[in-house]
From TrEMBL:
InterPro entries in the record: LysR-type_TF_proteobact-type, LysR_HTH_N, LysR_subst-bd, WH-like_DNA-bd_sf, WH_DNA-bd_sf
Record's signal peptide: none
Transmembrane regions: none
HTH lysR-type domain boundaries: 6-63
UniProt record, GO biological process: DNA-templated transcription
Gene name as annotated: gcvA
Protein name from the UniProt record: Ttranscriptional regulator LysR type
Native organism taxonomy: Bacteria, Pseudomonadati, Pseudomonadota, Alphaproteobacteria, Hyphomicrobiales
Length: 347
């Protein structure tokens, strides 16, 4: 039976030409010359001893014989493509165990997790909130998303994202207690997600290392300090990855135009022997694709939009404060930090 089947290349030329309606378009799609397509169609017609196209118009039209052949050819090519995909598709089923920086897990990964599960419904995930690099060598963990310097030996490591740090505060707290300048931070509770080094870095960039600080709370990680800011407990340091969606939704505001680079970055890491597993590869590929396809919002634009929406009526330049003493963030060109302002650092 196989001896009665026409050759594959002429069938491809016929299908592309019929679908695209012109020899030139088919030639571009198949990356061959116009003459090659014409030659292959003619060879197919000779093998059947019937014309497949009516010639003479601007757009080729199928003859009755061509119209009879086309659905069978398209169906055959679709079946071949499906079988090829099935043969080459990685085995993406089973259990995958992930550890992730707590703030990143709560505020970035979990809100997007449905995209992965919809694409790979046969993968069961076990998620652990942790930034402990010791998990890299645990047989119970497949992939780690860590915040650090990336210098972890004897494993596969790839930079996932650098990030910038900046103060964040809830709109409710900002309405009750203004932040017109960096000096107003002394009237707020300062929330730390580390031992204080990150706030020190930001204050140094703002020329405010001598700031007289009020109350301070120290928490084990940035997720807790961000949660504290969400619940009106004080001002935390957010970052461009985990705080971006919270700002876009209006749950947090970035009151100042100054950002500083974080001391470390987010890295994806895995044991070398685990990295080659198809289920691990597809999750790591998804992590990078999700980051690339979902850019973070422009922080100060978001903040100004949110603040304006909370004001009950427009006010003149001489009355920028509301009745409760809140002053909205002005445009960057008109804003000044107390003391010389450092240039905004971009990653």
């Amino acid at each position: 039976m196989s001896s009665r089947l026409p050759p594959l290349n002429p069938l491809r030329a016929f299908e592309a030409t019929a679908r695209r309606g012109s020899v030139s378009a088919a030639a571009r799609e198949l990356n061959v010359t116009h003459g090659a397509i014409s030659h292959q169609i003619r060879a197919l017609e000779l093998s059947f001893n019937v014309p497949l196209f009516e010639r003479g118009g601007k757009r080729l039209r199928l003859t009755p014989q061509g119209a009879l052949l086309l659905p069978a050819v398209m169906h055959a090519f679709a079946e071949i493509a499906a079988a090829t995909a099935a043969m080459t598709r990685p085995a993406t089923s089973g259990e995958l165990r992930i550890t992730c920086v707590p703030a990143l897990l709560s505020f970035w990964m979990i809100p997007r997790l449905h995209r992965f599960t919809e694409q790979f419904p046969d993968v069961q995930l076990t998620l652990v909130a942790s930034n402990d690099e010791a998990h890299l060598h645990s047989p119970d963990v497949d992939v780690c998303l860590l915040y650090g310097d990336g210098n972890w030996g004897d494993c596969w490591v790839r930079l996932w994202s650098r990030l910038e740090l900046f103060p964040v505060v809830s709109p409710t707290l900002l309405n009750m207690r203004p932040l017109r300048s960096v000096r107003d931070l002394r009237d707020h509770v300062m929330l730390h997600g580390d031992d204080g080094r990150e706030w020190n870095t930001w204050l140094a960039a703002a020329d405010a290392t001598d700031l007289q600080r009020g109350r301070q709370h120290f928490m084990s990680d940035a997720r807790l300090s961000t949660e504290g800011a969400l619940h009106n407990q004080g001002v935390a340091l957010g970052d461009t990855i985990t705080a971006g969606s919270l700002i876009a939704r209006g749950e947090l505001i970035a009151p100042f135009d100054l950002t500083v680079p974080a001391n470390d970055a987010f890295f994806v890491a895995s044991r070398n022997e685990v990295r080659a597993a198809p289920i691990v590869r597809v999750f790591i590929d998804w992590l990078f694709a999700a980051l690339e396809s979902d850019p973070m919002p422009e922080l100060q634009t978001s903040a100004r939009t949110i603040i304006r929406s909370r004001m009950s009526r427009p006010e003149g330049p001489e009355q920028k404060s509301t009745a409760n003493g809140f002053q909205p963030v002005s445009s960057p060109k008109n804003r000044r930090l107390e003391g010389p302002q450092k240039r905004k650092i971009k990653s």
